[in-house]
Amino acid sequence: MSSTAKKKGFGATIWDYLTTVDHKKIAILYLIAGTFFFVVGGIEAMLIRIQLAKPDNDFVSAGLFNEIITMHGTTMIFLAAMPLLFAFMNAAVPLQIGARDVAFPFLNSLGFWLFLFGGIFLNLSWFLGGAPDAGWTSYASLSLASPGHGIDFYALGLQISGAGTLIAGINFLVTIINMRAPGMTYMRMPLFTWTTFVASALILFAFPPLTVGLFFMIFDRMFDANFFDHINGGNTVIWEHLFWIFGHPEVYILVLPAFGLFSEIFATFARKRLFGYSSMVFATILIGFLGFMVWAHHMFTVGLGPTANAIFAVATMAIAVPTGMKVFNWLLTIWGGNIKVTTPMLYALGFIPSFVAGGVTGVMQASAPLDYQLHDSYFIVAHFHYVIVGGIVLALFASAHYYWPLMFNQMLNETLGKITFVFFFVGFHCTFFVQHFLGLMGMPRRVFTFMGGQGWDQFNLISTVGAFLMAIGVILLVVNVIITAIKNEPAGRDPWKDGRTLEWAIPQPVPYYNFKQTPLVRGLDTFWIEKMEGNKEGMTYAEPISDIHMPNNSFIPFMISLGLFVAAFGALYHQDADKTWSIPVLIIGLAITFASMITRSLKDDLGYHIHKEELMNEKGGKH
Amino acid sequence: MMKGLKKWRLFGLLAALTIFLSGCGEEYLSTLTPAGQVGKDQYNLLLLSTAIMTFVIIVVVIIYVLAIVKFRRKKVGENTIPKQVEGSHTLEIIWTAIPIVLLLILAVPTVSLTYKFADTKAMEAKDADGNAKAVTVNVTAKLYWWEFEYPEQGIVTSQELVVPTGQKVYFNLKAADVKHSFWIPAIGGKMDTNVDNINKFYLTFDKESDGLKDGVFYGKCAELCGPSHALMDFKVKTLSQDNFDNWVDNMQATKGKTADKKSTDLGEQVFANSCISCHAVSGEGTGGGVAPNLAAFGDRNRVAGFLEHSEDGIKDWIKNSQELKPGNIMPEEKALNNGKEFTDEELDALAAYLMGLSVEK
Amino acid sequence: MDLNKKFTPQSWPAHPENSTLEGKNKTLGFWIFLGGETVLFATLFATFLALKNKGPAGMEFSTQSLFELPLAFIMTMLLLTSSLTSVYAMYHMKNYNFKAMQAWLIVTVLLGLGFLGLEIYEFYHYVHLGFTFTQSAFGSSFYTLVGTHGLHVILGLAWFILLMLRNSKRGLNLYNAPKYYLASLYWHFIDVVWVFIFTVVYLMGVLG
Amino acid sequence: MSHDVEARTRSKHEYEYARKRANQGMRNQVTVFAIMIFLTFIAFAAVQAGMSAYLVAPLILLFAAVQVALQLYYFMHWSEKGHGMAQFFMYSAAFIAFTMILAFVTIIWW
Ligand code: HEA
Ligand code: HEA
Ligand code: CUA
Ligand SMILES: [Cu+2]
Q1: Is residue A565 part of a domain?
Q2: Which residue, A235, A303, D107, C56, is CA-closest to B172?
Q3: CA dihedral defined by A130, A133, A136, A141, rounded to 10 degrees?
């Protein structure tokens, strides 16, 4: 879609993307892969809703239903929401801080390919004997008892893609700490950069427990270990702890970048500086910190005892305070502003009441004795879809419109965008609002069917209808993308006219080396400052034009990931006595990975330079 | 379009309120119609928290609507640059302090109820004769059925919990195979049944279940436990103390009951040949059965927790138990009868025999 | 960066690991990675503490019956010393003394191999007694915790060896200096973890 | 990127001073090493001596913490400047590690 693509042959473009280490192209890769998985997860959601549209439905069987919900949850969280956020982080953060690229371009690409191969591996389970069926939480007693290889696909697939996520997280941390342009102090960083920073720190600390938990699961299922086997002294609750020590921060890993994106959008379209910037930063950090202290609120009914429950209940409630600070700061940002309701802004405005509604039900669940009633009922399903869809998905859709011109130099159609919003938003509330009541009326979650006459029939039907409205919304968005791509009208620089942060200062299409000269940052919303001072270029430079050092493209990340992908099949099938090929496959896979790593290590890969003279002649982003 | 939006919002709120007030949901199943102290406490907590949350939402929505109405570009003017405000400490303090107060209001009952519900000391209390004062039920959750053992009374039943009203009933909960969760929505919040340990909690039952639609409260399994998790229902019959004592006596009286292979009753004969190895027909004894105890089967409300309780239902179950409840442990028909299907005659007799297994005359 | 640029001890930067942007990024990134590793090991420790001495009914293995202090002590000494020798190696790296650096690294590797040998011997011994990975939850958690540490030792050694071989002809430059520095940080981190292993697993295990 | 290589040749005087500092530093490292060996020795001896676990356990945990601090501040150069971020992440990790372990050994278990 970029202008460079057209000049090259198709094969060359593919090769370019397979080997790219450019954050802007990796962003596009994340966007494509994430969207693909979002549609897969969305189709799974539709299957769930169709099955539950009426009582005693037999659209899908009981076992299949469990596979669908498990894959829906897992796909949406790990393979759709996170990668889509990574897409925008990659697209915007280096530009927002005025960097040439991320700190480790090679690792950036490795992170992507690990995620993609892990995701593909997980989804291949559908075709290789059945998907995982123990819920996205994969609680140990059930997941150990689950026959077939579904759970093995889950554990190995998440292990691979989790490694990719961890790498991406570390990369963003270093990028943000070390690669900021001169003048870009911490307290001048755009909020999306800040939230990316905190979310990455959460990734750093939350993924290792998941990694360990998944290894335990793999060892127990494939190598006869006894971590969760209570007969041999194991304890299933260890899994629950490890999963939630990861799982709770995970939801903030998702929602914090979404908050950041909305902060950018509010400020831009209210034409006003973000209200209470420093308290926003503070709240972000506080949420990140508290996120690690509350995991047991998912385990109130496990029987940890009243002291544990009470402590975790109160700690959980505390998170409402910093989140509230954010909500009110957003409100005060638009208050007194000059609000233009563009499509991104429409999503942002839709977000506030939706997210607050989801957040306050979270606080209700935090009240442990009340959660005894709510836990594992549809109330929970309602809560988390309100925060996830009303928070993260709306942020993703908003940013798709907001950052489309930055990524592709094209504008998505605004009218169609607003129509998309209406379908999706109305459908969303219609689907999930009634689920609160289903839960209170005694409907447990994860049920593949329900008996008629228990008072649940109407609401389930309403919920299904809403899901269809959402699907129409998603399809309209896809249509919008296609129309825009065909029209192919360049959007140019600062297409929203009200851009405030550095990424809007860069010329379009963005040159592959980003800023020709490193910008000098003169305050918060530096582009806005320059514009207000009448600087046509929108930037002050920190250095004269000089040689730019660029990293080389590399195919090695792809190979490293491919090796692990192959090896995972070997590990998975080694339990089956009849699959004698499994050990050789395991060894071959690991050999590919290690050989690729050693190749990387033995070569001196120093990159190349774009010379000053070339830069002087350059007009725009073609190369 | 924003107008449409707002209307939708208002409509949502109103709808919510009406639904709430009408006390929606079924009496035997809904947490909104609590029939026991635990459930009532939780319901009150629900009301309190809902009130707080509604307040929060209203405040947010008011500011939000005003902001959108007042500061649209159409109103403010295309080229106006608003004042770039940095923030406000006063406001900052207000919106930190007020939520903290609201949360404290919620935290106090939260903590106190947490401890209250966890208080199971009375389980151990004994009267002068060394008998436990309180009624205790040992619940074992199994794929996909429930076993209820009354250790003090020396009886065991399944699928249908029978309890006295007007007192605390204590539960020891555990799972035999994978994790499940024990939930009677209309009575009170749930507790997981783990494989590694025994959980204890109590519930109180204020209302006799006689007057309810099916004459029972509905109980649910609330933890994903396999394909038939959705069908792992149980029922709760609440009786007055006298009726409960009666029931216990009747159950105890089934002591030693068994099915006779030489019986003149064809149903009993078949049962003795094919079923008794797993299903007991005496309600006296301890838990740990591989299959539900059927001593009181005739008094049940459902077959296997969810099928219609009738001879047809039983026959359906025997013929198709695997399709009806995927993954359950009861063997297929042919496996029960030496590789043959039961004849219609045998099935009828079996069903009649099973319906006759009753302790409530 | 010009790999052929020749340095003298005098022109060699005082902090070669941090004197290029790549070097700065790598050092910081590695520290952050170590933060993640800390949590990873914490998870393993927590699990070990929860499952310590837990096994099938009637299991005769316990930390007190299994562990012997003299072996753990020798292992500790080897690893601690190797930590010091790698400090020496970095000292010479900063002095631009490639030969001395490589020599000290060889000593480090040898000490590390000694540690690894003893660990393998220890595991072999336990397995011989019937205390295996699959025997009990205690076994699973013990071997996973200590084994993960052992795996780190192997990786650390492989890293050192690869670096030494790869650069034996190239000598020191600003491209590989950060790599040496990181490998040595990794080695210290392994030692840090071991300090907790010998304290929490062995010493407190023997205490009961 | 290459242009920010710090490529300044130090003056002879500077260089010699730095060498001296480094030597001094290395001597410190050896002292630190001696302390670590000493702490290890005491820890093992205290356990071997069979003293009360209530006394010994906190003691050896303290020793472990001191040893680790020595590793980090001396062997891993935290005492030199420019390690703020490293410390920040490691301390955060330690804090989370501590919470997790505390939870696993106390209120969370039956
Ligand atoms: C993006 C995802 C996301 C987010 C942001 C949240 C946010 C919160 N969540 Fe949620 N949660 C999930 C995703 C998320 N959650 C998921 C996926 C599950 C289920 C997992 C599973 O079991 O499968 C879950 C489950 C879950 C549970 C467990 C329920 C159970 O299974 O029994 C609990 C219990 O405490 C909880 C609480 C909270 C709280 C207190 C917040 C808070 O952060 C919310 C804070 C926000 C506000 C409160 C609104 C704004 C604040 C104000 C306007 C200020 C004033 C407010 C007050 C005074 C109240 N969540
Ligand atoms: C990021 C996370 C995320 C997102 C975005 C969603 C989105 C949706 N979810 Fe999901 N959900 C979870 C995370 C998420 N969910 C999790 C973690 C669980 C718990 C799983 C578990 O219990 O283990 C869960 C469980 C869950 C349940 C409960 C299942 C149960 O307990 O039995 C339900 C039921 O209604 C549901 C519905 C939906 C719906 C209707 C959407 C909709 O918003 C989806 C909207 C998207 C679409 C509708 C896509 C439409 C696309 C097409 C139709 C194809 C068009 C194709 C082309 C044009 C090429 N979800
Ligand atoms: Cu048993 Cu769900
Ligand atoms: Cu949570």
Answers
A1: no
A2: A303
A3: -130
Look at residue A506 and tell me whether its pLDDT is greater than 80.
yes
CA torsion D97-D99-D100-D105 (nearest 10°) is: 120
Residue B235 tokens read as 């029922």
Q: What percentage of chain A reaches a pLDDT higher than 70?
A: 98
Total domains present in chain C: 1
Confidence of residue B7 (pLDDT cuts 50, 70, 90): low
Beta strands in chain B (DSSP E): 135-142, 145-150, 155-158, 160-164, 168-175, 180-184, 188-193, 199-204, 217-221, 234-239, 302-303, 307-308
Q: Side chain identity at C137, as an amino acid letter?
A: A
| CATH code for position A338 | 1.20.210.10
Residue A161 lies in a domain: yes
- Report the sign of the C-alpha dihedral through residues A115, A116, A120, A121, in that order: negative
Is B224's CB within 8 Å of A450's CB? no
Domain span holding position C122:
71-207
Please report whether residue A8 resides in a domain: no
Give the C-alpha separation, B328 to C29, whole Å.
52
pLDDT digits (tens, 9 = 90+) for A518-574: 899 988 999 999 988 888 777 888 888 888 888 899 999 999 999 999 999 999 998
Q: What is the pLDDT of residue A611?
A: 86
Share of residues in chain B with pLDDT > 90 (%) = 61
- The whole-angstrom separation of Cα A206 and Cα A289 is 12
Residues 6+ apart with CB under 8 A from C103: none
Distance CA A179, CA A393 (A): 29
Is A384 inside any structural domain?
yes
Nearest by CB: A367 against B64, B106, B229: B106
pLDDT at B18: 52
What is the pLDDT of chain C when averaged over all its residues? 91
Specify the pLDDT at position A578: 82
Residue B204: pLDDT band by 50, 70, 90 thresholds? very high
pLDDT greater than 70 at residue A622: no
> What DSSP letter does each residue of B66-103 carry, written as one string?
HHHHHSBHHHH-TT---------HHHHHHHHHHHHHHH
pLDDT(A620) > 50:
no
Q: Among A324-328, B21-25, B250-254, C17-21, where is mean pLDDT lowest?
A: B21-25
Choice among A6-15, A323-332, B45-54, C30-39 with the minimum mean pLDDT:
A6-15
Nearest-angstrom CA–CA distance, B335 and C52? 44
* B237 SS3 class: strand
Residue bearing tokens 């009448």: A534
Global pTM value: 0.94
Contact A371 CB / ligand 1 (< 6 Å): yes
Question: Which of A225, A337, A323, A316 shows the shortest CA–CA distance to A273?
Answer: A337
At residue C57, the pLDDT reads 86
Q: Which domain holds residue A295?
A: 26-554+605-617
Mean pLDDT of chain A: 92
Please report how many Cα atoms fall inside a 13 Å half-sphere around the Cα of residue B245, on the Cβ side.
Answer: 2
Query: How many folded domains does chain A comprise?
Result: 1
Domains of chain B listed by start with CATH number: 266-356 (2.60.40.420)
**Whole-number Cα distances in Å, D68 to B106, B337, C80, D64, D94:** 43, 70, 11, 6, 11
Centroid of ligand 3 to alpha carbon of A459 (angstroms) = 23
Show the ligand 2 pocket: residues with CB < 6 angstroms: A 39, 42-43, 45-46, 48-49, 69-70, 72-73, 76-77, 80-81, 135-137, 381, 385, 388-389, 393, 431, 445-447, 467, 470-471, 474-475, 478
* Dist. CA B222–CA D101, nearest whole Å: 29
At C118, which CATH number? 1.20.120.80
Q: Which residues on chain A are in Cβ contact (under 8 Å) with D99? A: 292-293
pLDDT at A621 over 60: no
